[in-house]
Design a protein that fits this description.
Layout lengths: L4 H6 L26 H7 L1 H19 L20 H7 L6 H7 L2 H20 L2 H12 L3 H12 L6 H12 L4 H8 L14 H26 L3 H9 L4 H26 L6 H11 L1 H4 L2 H11 L3 H28 L9
Helix pairs in contact: 5-17, 6-11, 7-11, 8-11, 11-13, 13-17, 16-17
Length: 341
């Protein structure tokens, strides 16, 4: 027969030990997962020292010059003093006069329209090209040929814009190879380099030829992190080459595509100053004037430093808002973007 609780106590069965006070039975207190700042600095001191030169360059050439934007609220004259600091101190304040002038400036709005049109064209035609090249190299090119193909694609990136424009001039100009060949065979020649209507397409294809191969590096690096076991398992399950690309390769590229798209949108108002400046006279300012060349002409050529600084401030604010907006869209799509939520 089973004994009752009272019978067990009467027979001298050992009682359960009393609970310890103040939670001593729970063991030691958990160690904080966050390491103190001084310990992290000591642990990463070598890496931090390696970043010092880059931080100094960024400070000297990016952040300290921001203080010069104060001239956008002045009637700045660099010749009223012996140095720039005294000139800024002695220049009269005009408030938002330059921003009001900008709002009524027809040339500014024309440059803005050209800039946005070129950006949208490059986003549509240029941005997908490195992705398609990376997919082609990763899926169709043999490993032995891959290194040669990558070297050929990377090479134009190291050419200066002067050389790139010269190559296109010798090929597609009025006296270029294609036009001369057509004339020798009884056809009418053409000159793409001086056609204002095709100028935006021209500079887009110049950028594709020069920088598309260089952009492949980022996407190939992302694809290198994909485990080959995934491709082997999908192949054993009967997935073909296109299925593997759709279900394995493209999802692996999605975070990188989202990040680069956010950064590309942030540079919407920067569409290639040197490239456009070299070809500006051939097609005229109506087709080629963008914000960067507009600031150059107003500020450097004509000496309107305050007005050029005001345009630069508006450009920076607009770029910041575009980055924040594009990053928010990336978060809604489930990607990290430039920074986490």
């Amino acid at each position: 027969m089973s004994l009752s609780t009272d019978d067990r106590r009467a027979q001298g069965s050992p009682a359960s030990p009393p609970a310890e006070k103040d939670g001593a039975a729970r063991g030691p207190a958990p160690v904080s997962a966050k390491m103190p700042l001084r310990h992290r600095l000591r642990r990463d001191r070598t890496l931090l020292l390696m970043t010092v030169p880059a931080m100094l360059l960024l400070l000297v050439f990016a952040y300290i010059p921001l203080a010069g934007n104060v001239v956008a609220f002045q009637d700045y004259d660099p010749y009223i003093a012996d140095n720039a600091f005294q000139a800024i101190a002695q220049s009269p304040w005009v408030g938002f006069e330059w921003f009001q002038q900008m709002a009524n400036d027809r040339l500014f709005w024309s440059a803005l329209r050209n800039t946005l049109a070129i950006f949208l064209l490059q986003l549509t035609l240029f941005f997908p090209v490195p992705i398609l090249l990376a997919l082609f190299i990763n899926s169709f090119v043999r490993p032995r040929v891959r290194a040669v193909a990558q070297a050929i694609l990377y090479l134009p990136h190291f050419f200066s814009w002067v050389l790139v424009v010269t190559v296109f001039q010798q090929m597609f100009g009025g006296a270029g190879l294609i036009a001369q060949t057509l004339r020798e065979n009884g056809h009418e020649g053409f000159d793409l380099m001086t056609d204002p209507g095709l100028f935006k397409f021209l500079i887009t294809f110049e950028m594709i030829w020069k920088d598309a191969g260089w952009g492949v590096i980022v996407f190939l690096a992302a694809l290198a992190a994909v485990s080959p076991d995934l491709y082997e398992a999908s192949a054993m399950d009967g997935a073909g080459r296109w299925r593997r690309m759709w279900h394995i390769t493209l999802p692996a590229l999605r975070p990188v595509v989202a990040l680069l798209l956010v950064l590309q949108v942030g540079n919407a108002l920067t569409v290639g100053f040197e490239q456009i400046l070299l070809q500006r006279t051939a097609v005229g300012p109506g087709a080629s004037e963008v914000l960067d060349t507009y600031v150059w002409n107003v500020g450097i050529t004509n000496g309107g430093f305050s007005y050029a600084a005001a345009v630069g401030i508006i450009k920076g604010i607009f770029g910041l808002l575009l980055v924040l907006g594009a990053n928010k869209v990336a978060h809604l799509m489930g990607e990290q973007g430039v920074y986490k939520k």
